[in-house]
Each structure stands twice: as structure tokens, then as C-alpha cells.
Design brief:
Blueprint: E1 2-4, E2 10-12, E3 17-19, H1 21-34, E4 37-41, E5 51-55, E6 65-71, E7 80-85, H2 86-92, E8 95-103, E9 117-125, H3 128-132, E10 138-139
Parallel strand pairs: 3-8, 4-7
Antiparallel strand pairs: 1-2, 4-5, 6-7, 6-10, 8-9
């Protein structure tokens, strides 16, 4: 994504989501087993606030979801979309998220569950520069 920089040019919008090397490695492994992937940030029900990893399109996004990032993972042909519900995004809009991996079994719905590890979010407040760059603003299309 890009945004105007006030000088007639464009500048890249800072990333809202990053991956640790361990998370990128697990995504390469999961991509090899399951095909294209996506994340949806859990709203806190069954598995706290864990990012849930699915086969791309397995979790149906809608008008109430925001695409925060399309993550480029070395060794994975296509970007990995990272989605969050718009309501949750309103609470987390001032944070930068880093997807990490820790030992332990996560949700039975997330693809990494059988691997004995789970994805975990580490967060920090956005820098002033990141916050000034604007919102991701991409939402999934609503029902017809």
C-alpha cells in the first residue's frame, strides 16, 4: 500500500504486522502442507487473542473485517493475508503486531495446532511516523 507524502510522490505505508523468523519458518512448513494461507486475529473467545491460521479462504471474511497486511514470506509464493474484525481493530488501531510462535497447543481450528506450537501476537504502540501514515482501510466485500 502507498500513501501521498505531500510532495506529489508516494511513500510506502509502514507495515502494521511483522513476522518473527520462527513464525516465517512455520508458515513455510504450513504452506507446504496446506497450500495458500491467511490469518484472522481472534477476538478473544476460545483462544484469547491468538492469530488463527487457515487455508486461504477457509475463514470467510466480510464487511466487518479489515485487511491489516499482506505478509511476504520468503519461500512462499503468495502473500499471507492478515485480517482482523473491524470492532477489534478499533481497540488495537494504535498497535503494531508481530506474529511469533511459542510451544504449546493453540486452538484446534488453527493449522499449527497439530504441530505442538501456537502462533502468538506481540504488540507495541505505533511510532508517531507509523501512526501518521494512516489506516490500512481495506475491508472485505460484504454479502451481495
Amino acid at each position: 500500500m502507498s500513501g501521498a507524502d505531500g510532495t506529489g510522490g508516494t511513500r510506502a505505508r509502514p507495515s502494521r504486522v511483522a513476522l518473527t523468523p520462527r513464525a516465517a519458518g512455520l508458515l513455510r512448513e504450513l504452506r507446504g502442507k496446506h497450500g495458500p494461507l491467511m490469518f484472522h486475529q481472534s477476538g478473544g473467545c476460545c483462544d484469547g487473542s491468538s492469530p488463527m491460521c487457515y487455508q486461504d479462504g477457509e475463514f470467510r471474511t466480510g464487511a466487518a473485517d479489515v485487511l491489516l497486511a499482506e505478509l511476504a514470506v520468503e519461500g512462499v509464493a503468495e502473500p499471507v493475508g492478515f485480517w482482523m474484525s473491524a470492532d477489534q481493530y478499533e481497540r488495537w488501531r494504535h498497535t503494531h503486531l508481530t506474529v511469533d510462535v511459542v510451544p504449546g497447543r493453540g486452538s484446534g481450528f488453527s493449522l499449527e495446532a497439530p504441530e505442538g506450537v501456537r502462533f502468538l501476537i506481540r504488540s507495541r504502540l505505533l511510532t508517531d511516523e507509523e501512526a501518521a501514515a494512516g489506516e490500512p482501510g481495506t475491508r472485505a466485500p460484504g454479502p451481495p
